[in-house]
Design brief:
The chain contains five helices and 14 strands. The chain is of the alpha+beta class and 281 residues long. The strands form three sheets. It has an eight-stranded mixed β-sheet. The protein has a four-stranded antiparallel β-sheet with strand order 1-2-14-3. Strand 12 and strand 13 (218-220) form a beta hairpin.
Protein backbone atom coordinates (compact mmCIF):
# COMPACT_ATOMS: atom_id res chain seq x y z
CA UNK A 1 0.00 0.00 0.00
CA UNK A 2 1.43 3.35 -1.00
CA UNK A 3 1.78 5.87 1.80
CA UNK A 4 0.21 9.25 0.97
CA UNK A 5 0.88 12.39 3.00
CA UNK A 6 0.17 16.05 2.67
CA UNK A 7 2.97 17.87 4.51
CA UNK A 8 3.57 20.34 1.67
CA UNK A 9 5.44 23.60 2.18
CA UNK A 10 3.89 24.60 5.53
CA UNK A 11 6.15 22.49 7.75
CA UNK A 12 8.51 24.50 9.96
CA UNK A 13 11.79 22.89 11.01
CA UNK A 14 12.72 23.19 14.68
CA UNK A 15 16.35 24.22 14.30
CA UNK A 16 19.06 26.82 14.70
CA UNK A 17 19.19 29.93 12.47
CA UNK A 18 22.11 29.86 10.05
CA UNK A 19 22.69 33.58 10.56
CA UNK A 20 20.80 35.99 12.77
CA UNK A 21 19.06 37.91 10.01
CA UNK A 22 18.37 35.07 7.58
CA UNK A 23 15.52 32.59 7.12
CA UNK A 24 17.41 29.27 6.65
CA UNK A 25 17.54 26.86 9.59
CA UNK A 26 19.57 23.73 10.32
CA UNK A 27 18.26 21.02 12.60
CA UNK A 28 17.46 17.36 13.19
CA UNK A 29 14.49 15.56 11.68
CA UNK A 30 12.38 14.48 14.65
CA UNK A 31 9.50 12.03 14.96
CA UNK A 32 6.60 14.39 14.28
CA UNK A 33 4.25 14.57 11.31
CA UNK A 34 7.16 14.93 8.88
CA UNK A 35 9.45 12.41 10.53
CA UNK A 36 6.66 9.86 10.72
CA UNK A 37 5.84 10.34 7.02
CA UNK A 38 9.49 9.99 6.01
CA UNK A 39 9.98 6.85 8.06
CA UNK A 40 6.75 5.23 6.84
CA UNK A 41 7.62 5.73 3.16
CA UNK A 42 11.21 4.60 3.66
CA UNK A 43 10.21 1.45 5.54
CA UNK A 44 7.56 0.61 2.96
CA UNK A 45 10.23 0.64 0.25
CA UNK A 46 12.87 -1.26 2.24
CA UNK A 47 10.64 -3.66 4.17
CA UNK A 48 12.68 -6.54 5.60
CA UNK A 49 16.07 -5.12 4.55
CA UNK A 50 18.43 -5.50 7.50
CA UNK A 51 20.17 -2.31 8.57
CA UNK A 52 18.09 -0.26 6.10
CA UNK A 53 14.51 -0.58 7.35
CA UNK A 54 14.29 1.26 10.68
CA UNK A 55 11.93 -0.48 13.11
CA UNK A 56 12.84 1.73 16.09
CA UNK A 57 9.81 2.65 18.24
CA UNK A 58 10.36 6.40 18.30
CA UNK A 59 8.64 8.61 20.84
CA UNK A 60 7.04 11.91 19.83
CA UNK A 61 9.67 14.58 19.06
CA UNK A 62 12.55 12.09 19.37
CA UNK A 63 15.25 12.63 16.71
CA UNK A 64 15.38 10.02 13.95
CA UNK A 65 18.57 8.08 14.61
CA UNK A 66 20.76 5.27 13.22
CA UNK A 67 22.05 7.24 10.24
CA UNK A 68 23.72 5.34 7.41
CA UNK A 69 24.08 5.80 3.66
CA UNK A 70 20.96 4.07 2.28
CA UNK A 71 18.76 5.54 5.02
CA UNK A 72 20.00 9.10 4.54
CA UNK A 73 19.80 8.97 0.74
CA UNK A 74 16.28 7.56 0.95
CA UNK A 75 15.20 10.15 3.55
CA UNK A 76 16.67 12.93 1.43
CA UNK A 77 14.56 12.00 -1.59
CA UNK A 78 11.41 11.70 0.51
CA UNK A 79 12.07 15.00 2.32
CA UNK A 80 12.54 16.83 -0.96
CA UNK A 81 9.24 15.47 -2.26
CA UNK A 82 7.27 16.02 0.94
CA UNK A 83 8.43 19.63 1.45
CA UNK A 84 8.63 20.74 -2.18
CA UNK A 85 12.42 21.01 -1.92
CA UNK A 86 12.41 23.27 1.15
CA UNK A 87 14.07 20.71 3.44
CA UNK A 88 16.99 18.51 2.41
CA UNK A 89 19.87 16.67 4.07
CA UNK A 90 22.97 18.81 4.56
CA UNK A 91 25.69 18.57 1.94
CA UNK A 92 29.38 18.35 2.95
CA UNK A 93 29.78 22.01 2.01
CA UNK A 94 26.82 23.02 4.16
CA UNK A 95 28.16 20.98 7.08
CA UNK A 96 31.39 22.98 7.02
CA UNK A 97 29.64 26.27 6.25
CA UNK A 98 27.18 25.94 9.15
CA UNK A 99 29.52 24.05 11.49
CA UNK A 100 29.06 26.32 14.50
CA UNK A 101 25.26 26.00 14.57
CA UNK A 102 24.92 22.25 13.99
CA UNK A 103 22.84 20.76 16.84
CA UNK A 104 24.44 18.09 19.05
CA UNK A 105 27.64 18.43 17.06
CA UNK A 106 30.03 17.00 19.65
CA UNK A 107 27.83 14.10 20.75
CA UNK A 108 26.42 12.71 17.48
CA UNK A 109 27.33 11.77 13.91
CA UNK A 110 25.38 12.53 10.73
CA UNK A 111 25.70 11.38 7.13
CA UNK A 112 25.54 14.03 4.42
CA UNK A 113 23.69 13.92 1.10
CA UNK A 114 26.91 12.71 -0.59
CA UNK A 115 29.23 9.79 -1.03
CA UNK A 116 32.88 10.15 -2.10
CA UNK A 117 34.36 8.52 -5.18
CA UNK A 118 38.17 8.19 -5.01
CA UNK A 119 40.44 7.72 -8.04
CA UNK A 120 41.65 4.18 -7.28
CA UNK A 121 39.74 0.90 -7.09
CA UNK A 122 38.93 -0.15 -3.56
CA UNK A 123 36.12 -0.74 -1.05
CA UNK A 124 32.59 -0.94 -2.46
CA UNK A 125 34.08 -1.19 -5.94
CA UNK A 126 30.91 -2.47 -7.59
CA UNK A 127 28.99 0.56 -6.34
CA UNK A 128 31.91 2.82 -7.26
CA UNK A 129 31.77 1.60 -10.85
CA UNK A 130 27.98 2.00 -10.89
CA UNK A 131 28.12 5.61 -9.66
CA UNK A 132 30.87 6.48 -12.14
CA UNK A 133 28.58 5.17 -14.87
CA UNK A 134 25.61 7.13 -13.50
CA UNK A 135 27.61 10.38 -13.65
CA UNK A 136 28.97 9.61 -17.13
CA UNK A 137 32.58 8.87 -16.20
CA UNK A 138 34.88 5.88 -16.56
CA UNK A 139 37.38 7.14 -13.98
CA UNK A 140 38.44 10.22 -12.07
CA UNK A 141 41.77 11.83 -11.26
CA UNK A 142 40.49 13.67 -8.17
CA UNK A 143 38.07 12.72 -5.36
CA UNK A 144 34.45 13.50 -6.20
CA UNK A 145 31.45 14.27 -4.01
CA UNK A 146 28.34 12.77 -5.62
CA UNK A 147 25.15 14.08 -4.03
CA UNK A 148 21.40 13.51 -4.31
CA UNK A 149 21.62 10.00 -5.68
CA UNK A 150 18.52 7.87 -5.28
CA UNK A 151 18.45 4.40 -3.71
CA UNK A 152 16.29 1.33 -4.23
CA UNK A 153 16.23 -2.23 -2.86
CA UNK A 154 18.58 -4.70 -4.52
CA UNK A 155 19.45 -8.37 -4.10
CA UNK A 156 23.15 -7.83 -3.50
CA UNK A 157 25.40 -7.79 -0.48
CA UNK A 158 24.19 -4.33 0.54
CA UNK A 159 20.43 -4.71 0.19
CA UNK A 160 20.27 -1.53 -1.87
CA UNK A 161 21.75 0.09 -4.94
CA UNK A 162 22.14 3.64 -6.21
CA UNK A 163 20.02 5.13 -8.99
CA UNK A 164 20.33 8.40 -10.87
CA UNK A 165 18.03 11.36 -10.21
CA UNK A 166 17.42 14.71 -11.86
CA UNK A 167 18.93 16.37 -8.78
CA UNK A 168 22.18 14.40 -8.55
CA UNK A 169 25.28 16.55 -8.60
CA UNK A 170 29.04 16.02 -8.89
CA UNK A 171 31.62 18.27 -7.20
CA UNK A 172 35.37 17.86 -7.37
CA UNK A 173 37.04 17.65 -3.93
CA UNK A 174 40.79 18.14 -4.55
CA UNK A 175 41.31 18.95 -0.84
CA UNK A 176 40.37 15.33 -0.02
CA UNK A 177 43.74 13.93 -1.15
CA UNK A 178 45.11 14.11 2.40
CA UNK A 179 44.12 14.64 6.01
CA UNK A 180 43.99 18.38 6.66
CA UNK A 181 41.66 21.19 7.74
CA UNK A 182 39.16 22.81 5.39
CA UNK A 183 36.85 25.83 5.54
CA UNK A 184 34.03 27.31 3.51
CA UNK A 185 34.86 30.21 1.18
CA UNK A 186 31.89 32.06 -0.40
CA UNK A 187 33.69 32.38 -3.74
CA UNK A 188 35.58 29.06 -3.88
CA UNK A 189 33.54 26.62 -1.80
CA UNK A 190 35.57 24.25 0.38
CA UNK A 191 39.27 25.06 0.60
CA UNK A 192 42.24 24.05 2.79
CA UNK A 193 42.51 26.28 5.86
CA UNK A 194 44.43 26.06 9.14
CA UNK A 195 41.41 27.64 10.86
CA UNK A 196 38.96 25.10 9.48
CA UNK A 197 37.49 21.67 10.29
CA UNK A 198 39.58 18.51 10.12
CA UNK A 199 38.88 15.91 7.43
CA UNK A 200 39.90 12.25 7.37
CA UNK A 201 40.53 10.69 3.98
CA UNK A 202 41.95 7.30 2.88
CA UNK A 203 45.70 7.50 2.34
CA UNK A 204 45.48 5.18 -0.68
CA UNK A 205 42.69 7.28 -2.29
CA UNK A 206 40.59 4.23 -3.09
CA UNK A 207 36.98 3.11 -3.29
CA UNK A 208 33.56 4.59 -2.59
CA UNK A 209 33.11 5.91 0.93
CA UNK A 210 30.78 7.80 3.24
CA UNK A 211 30.93 11.55 3.75
CA UNK A 212 29.74 12.15 7.29
CA UNK A 213 30.28 14.46 10.24
CA UNK A 214 31.69 12.54 13.18
CA UNK A 215 31.31 13.32 16.87
CA UNK A 216 35.05 13.96 17.25
CA UNK A 217 34.75 17.18 15.25
CA UNK A 218 35.77 15.89 11.83
CA UNK A 219 34.27 15.44 8.40
CA UNK A 220 35.12 11.79 7.81
CA UNK A 221 35.63 10.74 4.17
CA UNK A 222 37.47 7.48 4.86
CA UNK A 223 34.85 5.13 6.38
CA UNK A 224 33.71 2.46 3.91
CA UNK A 225 30.98 0.62 5.87
CA UNK A 226 27.89 2.04 4.20
CA UNK A 227 25.34 0.18 6.37
CA UNK A 228 26.91 0.73 9.78
CA UNK A 229 24.80 2.76 12.21
CA UNK A 230 24.10 3.29 15.89
CA UNK A 231 21.79 5.31 18.10
CA UNK A 232 23.84 8.53 18.00
CA UNK A 233 23.30 8.98 14.24
CA UNK A 234 21.16 11.98 13.26
CA UNK A 235 19.31 13.17 10.15
CA UNK A 236 20.56 16.75 9.90
CA UNK A 237 18.93 19.02 7.37
CA UNK A 238 18.66 22.60 6.17
CA UNK A 239 15.41 24.45 5.51
CA UNK A 240 15.37 27.49 3.28
CA UNK A 241 12.56 29.72 2.02
CA UNK A 242 12.45 27.87 -1.31
CA UNK A 243 14.82 24.96 -0.81
CA UNK A 244 18.49 24.61 0.17
CA UNK A 245 19.61 24.83 -3.45
CA UNK A 246 18.50 28.49 -3.47
CA UNK A 247 20.45 29.65 -0.40
CA UNK A 248 23.24 31.10 -2.52
CA UNK A 249 20.73 32.98 -4.65
CA UNK A 250 19.08 34.33 -1.50
CA UNK A 251 22.43 35.47 -0.13
CA UNK A 252 23.27 37.22 -3.41
CA UNK A 253 19.86 38.89 -3.46
CA UNK A 254 20.32 40.19 0.09
CA UNK A 255 23.81 41.46 -0.74
CA UNK A 256 22.51 43.28 -3.83
CA UNK A 257 19.76 44.91 -1.78
CA UNK A 258 22.30 46.00 0.83
CA UNK A 259 24.55 47.51 -1.84
CA UNK A 260 21.58 49.32 -3.40
CA UNK A 261 20.63 50.83 -0.06
CA UNK A 262 24.22 51.86 0.64
CA UNK A 263 24.45 53.54 -2.78
CA UNK A 264 21.19 55.37 -2.16
CA UNK A 265 22.42 56.61 1.23
CA UNK A 266 25.70 57.78 -0.34
CA UNK A 267 23.79 59.69 -3.05
CA UNK A 268 21.57 61.40 -0.51
CA UNK A 269 24.60 62.33 1.58
CA UNK A 270 26.31 63.95 -1.39
CA UNK A 271 23.13 65.86 -2.24
CA UNK A 272 22.79 67.11 1.34
CA UNK A 273 26.44 68.13 1.41
CA UNK A 274 26.03 70.08 -1.84
CA UNK A 275 22.92 71.80 -0.47
CA UNK A 276 24.81 72.91 2.63
CA UNK A 277 27.71 74.31 0.59
CA UNK A 278 25.83 75.93 -2.31
CA UNK A 279 22.24 76.19 -1.28
CA UNK A 280 21.36 74.25 -4.40
CA UNK A 281 20.74 70.58 -5.20
Amino acid sequence: MKTETNIGSNYQLKGNPVVETSVPLVGNIIYDELGEAVLAQHNELFRGRNNIEDTTKYQSSQPLSFSNVPRIFSYNQILSKETNGRIQVLSPEQVIRYWNVLPERTSTYADTDSIVIFPKEGPNEDLRQLVLKLIGKQNTKVPLFVSNLGVKPADNGYGFTFIGTDEMNVTEAPFAVKNQKIAYNPQKGLIPSEEGVSIYTPLDQSGLRRAYRNRDDVLNLSFDRLLYSYADGRVQVVQGPQGPENLEALTAQLQQERERQQAEIATRYQQALKLLKTGKL
